[in-house]
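--- STAGE predict ---
source: upstream dedup step, 1 unique chain passed
mode: sequence only
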Amino acid sequence: MAKAIPTTEPQKFTAGMTWEWDKSFADFPPSDGWELTYYFRSHVESADDLVAAWGTEVTANGETFEIRIPHASTSLTPGALDLVGEINNDTTAKKHLVFNDRIMVVADPSTGGVKSHAKTMLDALDTLLAGRVSGSDKKVIQVNGRRVEFETTEEIRVERAYWLGIVNKENTPHARLRSAARFTNA
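--- STAGE serialize ---
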């Protein structure tokens, strides 16, 4: 039995796997010259927030667009991303937004996944707190070559709460994290 192809954009994608869905628009049929393109954009504003774009992977089959993104093109970092669908017609010089929603990319099970910086920080702080509970007086973590030193356990807890908030937003498809900054009084 063949796998059923969804007719709406999935809310969750698995990195490293083939992604497939079909899409039809009564007002924008392929037979009238409409072309569909999907973009993944980072939900954190930056100068260049485009993560991936697919247009050649979208083909017309009658009045339906078939989206078939091969596994070699889906190795994205896990987390929440904005999926944007645009439809355009070069003949009429028209372009419309047909989809814009937060979706979730989960780790490729064959690689064990890649952690975001926020998750890496949270894990390091959890390890540091666990060590302090068991009697260690260590107050330093090192992440990506940067050393962070804390004066008190309370500072560690405050920092952990900050990174936990970001991780929760990364893992919530409909949360709207636009930017994050951490200011401290050194």
